[in-house]
Design a protein that fits this description.
The protein has one helix and eleven strands. Helix content is about 15%, strand content about 45%. It is mainly β. The radius of gyration is 15 Å and the shape is elongated. The strands form three sheets. It has a seven-stranded antiparallel sheet, with helices on one face.
């Protein structure tokens, strides 16, 4: 069964339009970037594109949201293991982030796999390590 919700704030800088949690525990988030989106201002004015650090920020906020919804307390980014960019996100693009993870009960760390796509093609891919303060009974 798939759960779909509209909205959630990925920090103050971005809201994801849609999110889904699939039955297998994987998550998807969607962002739509308007042509006049402030995120593009000043980043290559002749050919605007979304700054890579913005993708990392979106990844972190989406992972925190998904982990909280799955009962983990106080999730936070520990480190970026790897992150590669394959093509730019341009004004007007719709971007989908797919998350999957493996957790370690020993040290409360979670390895989160990240895959950004637009129109079904890979935009960026990587892995981050999140740490949590423990489990939460209810949200």
């Amino acid at each position: 069964m798939t759960t779909t919700k509209s909205f959630h704030q990925a920090r103050a800088i971005r809201t994801f339009e849609q999110w889904q949690c699939h039955a297998d525990g994987d998550w998807e988030f969607e962002w739509k970037f308007k042509p006049d989106d402030l995120a593009f201002q000043g980043h290559f004015p002749q050919q605007s594109l979304l700054p890579g650090v913005f993708l990392l920020e979106m990844s972190q906020r989406a992972a925190e949201f998904a982990l909280l919804r799955n009962g983990f307390a106080r999730p936070r980014l520990l480190r970026v293991e790897r992150f590669r960019f394959f093509q730019p996100i341009m004004p007007g693009d719709v971007c989908v982030l797919k998350l999957d993870w493996e957790s370690s009960l020993l040290n409360h760390s979670i390895q989160v796999g990240l895959l950004f796509e637009k129109l079904g093609e890979r935009v960026a891919q990587g892995r981050v390590t999140m740490v949590c303060g423990g489990a939460v009974d209810e949200l």
